[in-house]
Amino acid sequence: MRYRVLVSDPLAEEGLDILKEFCDVDVNTGLTEDQLVATIGDYDALLVRSGTEVTARVIDAGTRLKFIGRAGAGVDNINIDAATRRGIIVANAPEGNTLAATEHTMAMMLSLARNIPQASASLKKGEWKRSKFMGVELNDKTLGIVGLGRIGNEVAKRARAMEMKCIAYDPFISKERAAKIGVELVSLDDLFRRSDVITVHTPLIKETRHMINAKSIATMKDGVRLINCARGGIIDEKALADGIRSGKVAGAAVDVFESEPPTESPLLGLDRVIVTPHLGASTVEAQKNVATSVANQCISVLEGGPAKYV
Length: 310
Ligand code: NAD
Ligand code: MLT
Fold this sequence. Notes:
Elements (H helix, E strand, L loop, with lengths): L2 E5 L5 H10 E5 L5 H7 L5 E4 L7 H6 L5 E4 L9 H6 L3 E4 L5 H17 L1 H9 L17 E5 L3 H12 L3 E5 L5 H6 L2 E3 L2 H7 L2 E4 L13 H5 L5 E5 L8 H10 L2 E6 L18 E3 L8 H19 L8
Parallel strand pairs: 1-2, 1-3, 3-4, 4-5, 6-7, 6-9, 7-8, 9-10, 10-11, 11-12
Helix pairs in contact: 1-12, 5-7
D-malate binds next to loops.
Family: Belongs to the D-isomer specific 2-hydroxyacid dehydrogenase family.
EC number: 1.1.1.95
GO molecular function: NAD binding; phosphoglycerate dehydrogenase activity
């Protein structure tokens, strides 16, 4: 009997091709929680990106489920406790989109320093405002990296190549390891106080929710620039919007939001905030990597083997 797999967010063809060799695959995106609950009982595995909320209700209705795969890094849209209770293996693909998210962060930082999205929109409206879009150089500026994991590391290497000074806060990384890539490990307070640009690369967990808030923004340099290409909620959007309005924060670049799509975010109406719709992992290469990784892990688990990234 062939396994049945439900793919409920868009997945690259390369991953679907692997699955189809062994399984009957249904791609059905945009399902509501009720619709998922009604159908999940027919499937042995569920594969998602960040669009599907895999709630405890969905998991409990998945009476045949053996595997939930996340084509990407963050598993915050999957109720891991509920899956563990039911003995369902949850695996992700944390390495496949590291470089895509890193390059997006660098693109955001450069766009922020030189006002590229705003200047482009202005010129397309027929304006020619050269002095309005005066930028700043990144060379010799201090970049504060919160979370020196996979993406934080790759960002640091590229920022070092641009001759930025890199400092980082990460309670789980040693000073020696940071020093190897030319990064000084500092306390969070020091990082806030010393950085010209701050970029966050942590998971969204209890300890990191609203880690950047009104209180911490008050301790930062005047004219600081903030970047969030990690997870919505690490920066308090309201506090950031207030910081931008007051002029304390010179600009922000935001790829991820507390609620997505971010219809209510106070950041959307601000000229000095540049935004992208959660595009960090959206490259052809990254999507192929994460899709093949979860597809291979799915087949392995369904056949009684291990998953690489549990
Ligand atoms: P990672 O696990 O390799 O690194 C995360 C780092 O954060 C680790 O080094 C960890 O020690 C550190 N950390 C944990 N708690 C911390 C705390 N309280 N303070 C400071 N540091 C702390 O993860 P990664 O692959 O580098 O991904 C980083 C983030 O980027 C994740 O939230 C991930 O979901 C997100 N992401 C977003 C996109 C996107 O599309 N925008 C794409 C890929 C990843
Ligand atoms: C991730 O955690 O991998 C990212 O948010 C990217 C995505 O979901 O596509």
